[in-house]
Structure formats: C-alpha cells, structure tokens
Specification:
The structure holds two protein chains of two kinds. Chain A folds into two domains: 30 residues; 319 residues, Rossmann fold (3-Layer(aba) Sandwich). Helices cover 40% and strands 7% of the residues of chain A. In chain A, the strands form two sheets. Chain A has a five-stranded parallel β-sheet with strand order 4-3-5-6-7, sandwiched between helices. Chain A is globular, with a radius of gyration of 25 Å. The N terminus of chain A is likely disordered. By secondary structure, chain B is mostly helical. Classes of the chains: A alpha/beta, B mainly alpha. At the A-B interface, α1, α6, α7 and α8 of A face α1, α8, α10, α11 and α17 of B.
C-alpha cells in the first residue's frame, strides 16, 4: 500500500542522495527561460494598458467629469488628468461639490466658470465621494500628470464637521476611497485593513497594470473580478462585456439624489462638533495636497466652501466662522491665494455643502467677481 | 501568513537576503528558526508555546532514549504527549460532544464540559513530523540530532510547517545540517513550482470555492445538477488548494536550497483507489503506511488481517482530517472501496483489458462521491446531498462555463502530460508561454481574496 510513485526526476541525485521528484507537471523553466517568461510578462503588463487607451476612447469634452460609476477607477482618473492637462486647462480639483453630486455636467461649477469666462477653460477634476485625505492620495499617486498647471482646489469643511468625518474615531467604519488614504502613516484609527491588504494597495499604486485591471472590473464587470462576475452571470460571455464604451459623465449617482433645496427635503438644522484645525487629519491632508501640487510646479488657488451656513445652529455657526478664519489665515500666511465666498442663498443648497445648479451658477459668478481669483486666472474685467 | 499574500512577499524579501548572506555560517539555523517562528506566530503568538513544548518533549525524549537502556518509556512519553496534544486541541470538543449525546441518550444527568480551545493551525502536520523523528530514532532509522535549535527548525521549518509535506527527519535534517547549495537553477525551479502553486490556489481553487461554498452552505436549497456540479467542483477545489499549497511550499524550499518531497502526483489520473492514495497527499499516505499500517502487520499476516489493517489505517486517516463523523465516514468509504477493489486492481484483467480512461473515470467518480462527506457540514447534509443527486430533480445549476472550461483544460493538460503525447508540453516555447499565461491570468482575473487553505484546519 501507499508507495509513492515518482513522476519524473530530471536530476537523479543530489549530493549522493536520491532527489525528490520535481513535480507532476512539465512547467519547469531554466534561469534563461525564466528571463524570457518575465520579459514577455513584463511586456504584456506594459503594453496592454497602453493598447487599451487606444482602443477605449475617452471623450473628455468641455464639461467632462469622471463618471459616477467609475469614482473608484483611479487608472481612468489618472488618464483623464493627463488629457485635461494636455489641453492646457485650469483644473478644478475637489470632492463631490466640484463633481456636482446633485447636478448634470451642464450644472457644475466648472461649467459655469467656463460660461463666465466665455471659453472652455476649466476642467472638472472632482471625484464623487472623495475627501481630503483620499484626495491627497489621489494627487500623490495618480496625479503625476498635474504639473505646471493652474489648479483650483476646493476645500469642504464638511470633512471637519465631526471626528467621524475627520476619520478620527477609533471604531472601524466603512469610508470612501480607503485605498487612497495613507496605509501606514499617519495612522487612521478607524481604518483596519490587514497588513497584506495595505501592502497590496501600496503595490497597486506603483503598478499601472493593476490599476488597469481594476478599471476593467469597474467599467465592464460591475466592479467584480472575473471570477465573481461569472458566478453572478454563469452563462454570459465575459468577452461581450468589453464594449470599450465608458459610462456617460451625465449618468446620475446611485441612488439618484433628489435635486431639491434642503428645506424641501426635510433636512433639519444641525450642530456639528467641529474638529479643531490643528488636530484635523482632513485639514492636514488638504495642506498636503497643496504642498504636493506646488512641489510639482502647479499654481494653486484654494476655494473654501461655501458651506451651507443656514443649516447650522447659532453656536455652531460661530465655531465654523472661527475655523474659516483660521484656515484663511493659514493659507494667506503661506502665500496660498484663496477665497472663501460668502454663503449662498438657502434655497440653492441641496444639503450641508452641495449647491444645486443655480448655486453653482451663483458661486461661479462670485468667483468671477473675486479679485484674487481673477488675478489668479488672469481674467480680464467683464 | 499565507504564501499568496503580500505579507508573505514582504516577509520573504526580508528573510531571504539575510539567509543568503549567512547560509555558510552558524547563524543560518537560528535565522531559519526565528523566521519560522515569526511565520507561525503571525497567526497567533500563543501557538508558539505549543510548538515549542512539542519540540522540547520530543527532543529530550530522544536524548532520554539515547542515554537509557530502556527506550520504550521515552517513546511512549513522546507518543502520549503528541497524541495528547492532538487529542485535546483537535478532538476534545468532538469527544465531549459525543459523550454528552450518549449521556443524554442514557438519561444520565451529567454533562462533560466542552473544552473551549482554539485549534492551532497546522498542529496535525508538525505533531506528525515531530513524532516520526522519535519513532524513527527508536527504530534506529535516524541519528540523534544534537542541536536543539536545528531540531526545532526541522519541526517548524516555515515552508512546510502548516500544511506539509510532512517531512521525515531522514530527508530534512541532513539538509539542515549542511550548508545549502543554491544555484540559479534552484531559484528557477523554485519559481516554477511557486507559480504553478499560486495559479492553482488563486486562479482555480478560490474560483471554485465561490461556486461550491454557497451550495454546500445550504444544500437544501439546491437540486441535483447544482449539488452534483458543486461536488465535482469541490473535488478539483481541494486538489488545487492543497496541491497548490504544497507546490508553493516546495518552491519556497527549493529557493532556499531545501528539497521537499512531492506530495501530489496528478491523483485524478489514478486508475484505482490504491493508485489514488499513491498520488494523493503522498507524505501523509506514506506516514500512515510506515507508522500505522506496517506496525499493525501490513499485508504480512494473511488476507483477513491485511484488510483489517487497511480499514483501520483508512479510518485513522479519515479522523486525522477532522474531528467529525463526516471524516470518519469518508475514511470508512475509502476503506471499503479500497478493500473491495484491491484484488481487482491487482488482476491482469483490470490492468491489461480495462481501458485506462474507464479506470480513471471510475476512480474519479468514487473519490468525488466520497468528497461529499468530506465537505458537507454534517452527516445529514451529506445524506441530503446524495439523495438529492440520486433523485435527479432539475433546477438550473448556474455553474459558470468558464469554471468548467478551466477544469477541463487542467485535466487535459495532466492527461497529455502522463500520456505518450507528453512531449508536446516539453518544448521551451510551450513552457514559457504557460508560465507567462499563468502570471498574467493571476494578475488579471484571479478572485481577489486572502482565502486560507482548506488543509490549514486539519
């Protein structure tokens, strides 16, 4: 019974002792063959994403934004950043306020800025759901193309409105864009990814091919890897899913937001527990984004808010104004041009920080009237 | 720490350069031991207490044997300690549960307390490995290892610590005693083994698990086609999972200049159950052969005793896999199957007249059906699955065609490899193409998971 049968033994002895059979298959490469295999794999890894760019058109017109469904597709974001930079645009960078959570592409801030400037000048580089900590990661790891440009960076104080928003709570919770946040330092107490997961994320940032595989999953396979997708669609042909047609930037978020003033949506006034700027991770990250952008030779202009102050209780409003003042002082002290537009009318806000289309129009107008902004963008008087 | 995770990649990147730098010095073994303990302690540092205890007892038992005229008590101490550890940590709950069921059945108002202990990863593997050393020393088959550190390294060597292959002191200790010679060819060989194992685990086993797990998790919600296909898929899942692990273990060992034994040899091409057990988990089969079957008398004491010994060995083997009646039944079915077909397998009619494909199909069918007991959560689930399959009730199995195509491709590869047409797979462009394709497939399409290996639970 139970006598092992060797499959093959290419080297019968090692140091005079019987050699263990190598394996039960023929996959055995010499060092030279390994070099060839690695070269071939490396070539494929390098060429496939490049070829894909040619096959998959990215029609980044005047009001283009990264489609909502592709919000976690950083490979596409990097590609779009490159295209926007190549067209010599001023880049409007920020979270869902810049992206336009409640509006279509023709209702965003960049759209109305282009209208106010009378030319296709501003590109919407907002990402839905991103927060300053993740934005710093996005710019650092996927925004290499953004150099030597004019960047309008939006800062949203919503991310400092509580310890939870500021990612400072110790209890683990799911937040947006975890793979963009610092994996090791500074430590984010509510982020509990395994060491292996963190290392995988760090490697994924450095290897565009891995970002491209995520792009394929997100764009064509319902954000699932091929294995899981085939389990959900057992008889479908995965090849047929590759249409090389990206979702429309006008595709609304899911679930579709109700584009009505906050007062009509039953939202009440609230009293956020504002985090102090000196301890805020989100504020530190916004500062880091500015530093990264400036280090890359960009000119940076910061727009803070305007937050929906109508939603705040009186006590909270006082603290908010203090934070605003501190932020402005910090920026001005470091020579960062900035503006903090006055609050918009209550009815043009959909929630605490997102304007409706009319709000964006008003905000763009206010920026167009803002001396510092005009000086930054080189806009002449109208 | 799993081989297919980035943690292991980082661990190895730290370990290997130092290992290469000091492999010719006295620091090699302590470094190997430290790395092995870090690797094992990564799961739970408390596990280290157990492995150090087991190692120490066996080390000193052998010293005791070497210094004493009466060797048997030392061997008994080692066996009692190892089997006691295994019994307590692995079978304590099973035994207590069954005793309690018996007490209830007898109407006795007493309850044995359930031991609330964690099963240490890989305990069945390193306990068997360590135990084989004391038995072999008792039999005079190996020399005493003078160095405690080296012996501890033998027991805990990280590539094969948690899921084998279960190495023998005769093979592994001499390799640890001398400076490893690591040529470029060894690194290339190690990488070849590792890539195949990685592909088996990440691209195949974890993919099959996505189909198998939900169906076996709630068999009552499925009909014959899904249950049959899930059973078929599980047969391949466990093969890819376990053989993938040992391929990676052997690959890592090879890169370190350590040759670990072949553990799987295309078992689903076996032409009989005896042949299957010569191809499946070879290190365990040979362990049971040498330390259970042969001491029981093997085939030396007549036909009846031979069959008794086969059945006992298979039953113990079943129980080794897990503390549940499903594993006992699994072992019993193999015992019955092997006993029933042993004479047939040896007959010239079977060997020469029956087409190989038919023999392979029959063996595979039997082995696959027994996997039902191995995989099912309980005996009642296993019975439900088998009866549902036999009833032929129809419902869409929703089995991905890609999954079936991958299994077919692997089977064809193995069949060609063992056939006369095996030369087709030997040319360099074919092998290089296969490796490049596997690397790309793993990075492109593999299920992104850190799923543990099935055999870790044993």
């Amino acid at each position: 019974m139970h006598k092992p049968v060797p499959a093959e033994s290419d080297r019968p002895t090692v140091g005079g002792e019987p050699e263990a059979p190598f394996s039960s298959n023929a996959v055995r490469l010499s060092p030279g063959e390994w070099m060839v295999a690695l070269l071939l794999t490396g070539l494929a890894i390098h060429l496939i994403p490049a070829a894909w760019r040619r096959a998959e058109p990215l029609e980044a017109g005047a009001d283009y934004r990264v489609p909502y469904r592709l919000s976690n597709d950083y490979w596409l974001a990097a590609r779009y950043f490159g295209e926007a930079c190549a067209r010599d645009k001023a880049l409007v960078l920020g979270d869902s306020v810049v992206w336009g959570h409640y509006v279509g592409t023709a209702g965003t801030l960049s759209h109305y800025l282009n209208e106010a400037w009378g030319e296709d000048r501003f590109a919407n580089l907002g990402i839905d759901g991103i927060h300053p900590v993740a934005l710093a990661g996005l710019v650092e790891h996927y925004g290499g193309a953004i150099s030597g440009r004019d960047v309008i960076l939006h800062g949203n104080f919503l991310w400092m409105s509580s310890k939870r928003h500021d990612l400072q709570v110790t209890k683990e919770f799911t937040f947006n864009h975890p793979s963009l946040v610092p994996q090791f330092w500074p430590r984010i107490p509510c982020y509990r990814e395994s060491l292996s997961g963190r290392l995988g994320i760090v490697v994924g940032r450095a290897v565009p091919f891995l970002g491209w595989t995520k792009h394929v999953e997100i764009a064509y396979f319902d954000n699932a890897d091929l294995a899981r997708w085939t389990i959900a669609h057992p008889y479908a042909n995965p090849g047929a899913r590759i249409t090389f047609a990206l979702p429309s930037p006008d595709e609304p978020p899911s679930p579709e937001p109700v584009a009505k003033p906050w007062t009509e949506r039953g939202i009440r006034r609230f009293s956020p527990d504002w985090v102090a700027l000196e301890t805020s991770l989100q504020w530190r990250s916004l500062r880091r984004t500015i530093e990264i952008l400036r280090r890359r030779g960009n000119r940076v202009f910061v727009v803070i808010g305007p937050f929906n102050e109508h939603m705040l209780t009186d006590a909270s409003l006082a603290v908010y104004r203090q934070r605003k003042q501190e932020a402005e002082t910090w920026l001005r002290d470091r020579g960062v041009p900035c503006t903090i537009p006055a609050v918009l009318p209550s009815e043009v806000y959909a929630d605490a920080s997102h304007p409706l289309s009319e709000g964006y129009r008003l905000l763009a107008q206010r920026l167009a009237d803002d001396e510092a902004f005009r000086a930054f963008t080189g806009m002449r008087g109208q | 720490m799993l081989f297919h995770t980035w943690t292991f990649a980082l661990f190895f990147l730290v370990f290997y350069p130092v290992y290469l730098a000091i492999k010719g010095t006295r620091l090699r073994t302590p470094w190997l031991l430290l790395a092995s303990y870090v690797f094992y302690g990564w799961w739970n540092p408390l596990y280290l207490l157990l492995i150090v205890w087991s190692t120490s007892v066996d080390y000193f038992a052998v010293i005791g044997m070497s210094r004493s005229r009466r060797r048997a008590p030392w061997l008994v101490a080692s066996l009692v300690n190892n089997l006691g550890l295994l019994g307590f940590f692995k079978y304590g709950e099973f035994v207590a549960g069954n005793v309690n069921s018996l007490l209830i059945w007898l109407g006795l108002p007493y309850e044995v307390p359930m031991p609330d202990v964690l099963l240490p990863v890989g305990i069945s593997f390193y306990v068997f490995q360590s135990m084989s050393y004391t038995i072999d020393f008792y039999r005079g088959n190996v020399d005493r290892e003078p160095s405690f550190v080296r012996y501890a390294t033998f027991v805990s060597l990280f590539p094969q610590l948690v899921a084998g292959p279960i190495e023998r002191a005769k093979n592994l200790l001499p390799q640890l005693q001398r400076e490893p010679r690591i040529a470029m060819a060894d690194v290339a060989d190690g990488l070849s083994l590792f890539v195949v194992g990685l592909f088996k685990k990440v691209a195949l086993a974890d993919y099959l698990a996505l189909y198998v797990d939900p169906i076996y998790g709630s068999p009552g919600e499925h009909q014959a086609p899904a249950l049959a296909l899930a059973t078929f898929a599980f047969a391949w899942q466990i093969y890819f999972d376990f053989s993938g692990y040992t391929d990676m273990a052997r690959g890592v060992g090879r890169i370190m200049g350590i040759r670990l034994m072949l553990n799987f040899n295309n078992p689903y091409l076996a032409t009989g159950l005896g042949d299957f057990w010569r191809r499946w988990h070879i290190s365990l089969s040979s362990w049971f052969r040498d330390y259970v079957y042969i001491p029981l008398g093997g085939s030396r004491r007549g036909t009846r005793n031979t069959y008794r010994n086969i059945c006992l060995t298979m039953l113990v083997s079943g129980l080794w896999h897990g503390a549940a009646w499903t594993f006992v039944v699994w072992g019993a079915l193999h015992a019955l199957g092997y006993s029933a077909t042993r004479t047939l397998e040896l007959s010239s009619f079977y060997r020469n007249r029956v087409p190989a494909l038919a023999k392979q199909a029959g063996t595979f069918l039997f082995v696959t059906l027994t996997w039902v007991f191995f995989r099912a959560e309980s005996l009642s689930d296993a019975w439900l699955i088998l009866t549902r399959i036999a009833e032929f009730g129809w419902a869409d199995p929703a089995c991905p065609l890609l999954l079936l195509a991958l299994i077919a491709a692997v089977w064809i590869y193995q069949y060609v490899h063992e056939s006369r047409a095996g030369w087709i797979l030997r040319p360099a462009p074919v092998r290089i193409g296969l490796v490049a394709a596997m690397l790309l497939y793993v990075s492109l399409f593999a299920a992104s998971s850190d799923q543990a290996f099935i055999y870790f639970q044993f």
